[in-house]
Design brief:
This protein has helices at about 15-25, 50-65, 90-115, 130, 140-160, 175-180, 185-190, 200-210; strands at about 5, 30-35, 45, 70-75, 120-125, 165-170, 225. By secondary structure, it is an alpha/beta fold. Keywords: Fatty acid biosynthesis, Fatty acid metabolism, Lipid biosynthesis, Lipid metabolism, NADP, Oxidoreductase.
Length: about 230
């Protein structure tokens, strides 16, 4: 059956691959975005997840078009890399407010409807950096590690209502963000990955779609690495 799916930050990169995977499966897919265009076949909703009023308005728009959100993929996030001693409080807070607090806002709003329906799927997009660490990314790593504690705690809260909450932790992924790196930087990153290459966004999307399927109905509170082995042991 076609479900109402919402992917935050879904107009490019991993989010777009996730949105397209659900749409290809026949689901009704909406994506939030702050700028840019949305590909045909997806419902685009302008929303800055750091603004609670915009989050509420976005959900109302999705609900009017597709019905209550049954699958939420919390993907929207930013980076603002800097060594700690050069990082301002604003640099730190801005990343936390988007990646962690913004996810809190969207998940809280989605779960409200899922509790009434007594079913739902929530997938949080974290990062290998959450557990592995990365110099110059204390703010980003803290925000992505926070998603793991947040997701596992929520999984315990809502499991009795047939709602699963899982975390996907991608590694080095071939997106516009990583394509901005020099060829030497990209090769250096790839050498750290046991599989020796970056992931395609579609490989992350396949895991997200599985966790949202009936086949994964007994998986909740899990952290699934899709990182080519980069973070193994962490």
């Amino acid at each position: 059956m076609s479900r109402s799916v919402l992917v935050t930050g879904g107009n490019r990169g991993i989010g777009l691959a996730v949105a397209r995977a659900f749409a290809a499966n026949g689901d009704k897919v909406a994506v939030t975005h702050r700028s840019g265009e949305v590909p045909e076949g997806l419902l685009g909703v302008r929303c800055d997840i750091t603004d609670a009023e915009q989050v509420e308005a976005a959900f109302k728009q999705v609900e009017e078009a597709h019905g209550p959100v049954e699958v939420l993929v919390a993907n929207a996030g930013i980076t603002n890399d800097q060594l700690l001693l050069r990082m301002s409080e604003e640099d730190f807070s801005r990343v936390l407010d988007t990646n962690l607090v913004g996810t809190f806002r969207t998940v809280k709003r989605a779960v409200r409807g899922m509790l009434r329906a007594r079913k739902g799927r929530v997938v949080l997009i974290s990062s290998v950096v959450a557990l592995l660490g990365s110099a110059g990314q204390t703010n980003y790593a803290a925000s992505k590690a926070g998603l793991i504690g947040f997701g596992r705690s929520l999984a315990r809260e809502v499991g009795s209502r047939n709602i699963t909450v899982n975390v996907v932790a991608p590694g080095f992924v071939d997106t516009d963000m990583t394509r901005a790196l020099t060829e030497e930087q990209r090769e250096a990153y790839a050498k750290q990955v046991p599989l020796g290459r970056a992931a395609a966004p579609e490989e992350i999307a396949a895991t997200v779609r599985f966790l949202s399927s009936d086949d994964a109905a007994y998986i909740t509170g899990a952290v699934i690495p899709v990182d080519g082995g980069l973070g193994m042991g962490h």
